[in-house]
Amino acid sequence: MGIVERMRLDGKKGFVTGAARGIGKCTARAFAEAGADVAIVDMDLETAEQTAAEIAAATGRKVIALKCDVTSEEEVKAMVEAVVEGLGGLDFCHANAGICINAPADEMTYAQWKKNIDVNLNSVFLTDTIAGKYMLANGGGSIINTASMSAHIVNVPQPQCAYNASKAGVIQLTKSLAIEWAKRGVRVNSISPGYIGTDLTLSSPTLQPLIEKWNAMAPTGRLGKPEELESICVYLAGDTSTFTTGADFTIDGAFTCF
Ligand code: NAD
Question: Which one, of 22, 14, 25, 7, lies nearest residue 142 by Cα?
């Protein structure tokens, strides 16, 4: 079997959080295109249902939508159970839901700080450990976390200390779980995208006006597209990446190279 065939995800089952739109929608569609059955997990159920229907129609795979606030332990537990029941198992997941709160540190409220850490980092602990426990007990699996280039650099000019700290935490959590589970069949990796054109950037009243400045700083002169993150996630979810664990993949058009 050739490499393209070996990279396929036929027979695998997985879920993506924050998959109603943006990066998560794109990786969920890529997983389904590669042959997997997929759950679209989001707090926005209506959009998640539309996304699931769209991907199912385009790929012919089983695609279900599940409502879940990834900051709630009870909801994440119920979601993982629903994935296992709805799809018949769990081989991979992409913990991707996230938000960005922009505020100068000396004006940021403690509530804003906690919210950003909760949605971006505590949720990844919940998703990874609850999905991971199932995978550890059921033949292994692959976990992909969305970090950010903000884990590696401090973005300018916008002030976003909580976001940056949360994403740095995602990478260290990824590496810690990878080491704990390396001999037990569960791999854990992260992706660190640069600026990507999604609602998070294009529709944000604070971030959208900065796009021209970011592009002027970017070696490529442009934002990335969600589609440019798909193949790495398909690789990580599948069986050609069995020696890849504890790795972070920076996909930023060389933004963090200087
Ligand atoms: P987006 O805003 O387009 O989509 C995020 C999705 O997550 C939405 O559907 C939203 O409903 C969902 N969500 C938010 N909070 C949730 C919660 N508590 N529970 C469940 N679902 C929730 O964002 P995006 O650009 O696609 O970002 C996806 C991930 O990629 C985030 O972790 C983000 O930090 C990261 N990221 C984005 C960029 C970028 O430039 N867009 C760059 C690097 C990293």
Answer: 14
Evaluate whether 246 touches 188 at the Cβ level (below 8 Å).
Answer: yes
Ligand 1, CB cutoff 6 Å, lining residues: 17-18, 20-24, 42-44, 68-71, 96-100, 119, 146, 148, 193, 195-196, 198-201
Which CATH superfamily is 3-194+229-247 part of?
Answer: NAD(P)-binding Rossmann-like Domain (3.40.50.720)
Residue 9's pLDDT is 98
Nearest to 184 by CA among 139, 144, 239, 237: 139
Q: For residue 149, how far is its CA from the centre of ligand 1 (angstroms)?
A: 14
Query: Tell me, what amino acid is at 140?
Result: G
% of the chain residues with pLDDT over 70: 100
Q: Where are the domains of the chain?
A: 3-194+229-247
- Enzyme catalytic residues: 148, 163, 167
Q: pLDDT tens digits, residue range 29-60?
A: 999 999 999 999 999 999 999 999 999 999 99
Give the mean pLDDT of 108-129.
98
* Residues 188-202, mean pLDDT to the nearest whole number: 97
**Minimum-distance ligand 1 atom for the alpha carbon of 223:** 40
Q: Which atom of ligand 1 is nearest to the CA of 48?
A: 9
Per-residue pLDDT band at 222 (split at 50, 70, 90): very high
Question: How many CA atoms are closer than 13 Å to the CA of 254, on its beta-carbon side?
Answer: 6
